[in-house]
Amino acid sequence: MKKLMVLAFVVASVGHVYAAGVEPGEWEFSVKTDLQDMPPSQHPLKLKKCLSDKDAANLLHYLPLAPGATPETCTVKEQKQNGTKLHYVVQCTGMPNVTTSGDASVAAGNLIGHAVTNLESATYKKQLTQQYTGKRIGKCR
Q: Which residues are CB-neighbours of 41 under 8 A, at least 6 positions away?
């Protein structure tokens, strides 16, 4: 289950890059996710993803989203950019309700960030933390 959560976060972890000035293209991402009350993850998950202009224009397609959360169930509540520094807050409704707050440093060919996600349902409250990096490795194939 933890690997499923990590995969969902990886797929969702890079949407802010285009808005922050990073080029569309083939990207390689590395994400380390830790879930509250679980042993720390030993290895980051690595993923390659093609970011098109259209995909990169919709932040919710790549921001860290919790399992079960989708771009259709989430809203960007806050997005602030100062040079290469980006701060964002995303809220998602459903079971569980999700609030993610993240900060990233972005440039044309790379990004590095940290996000904290709070999961809350009627029966539990958990927190996920992520450290993620990405680098553009070329044009999409």
A: 2, 6, 32, 33, 34
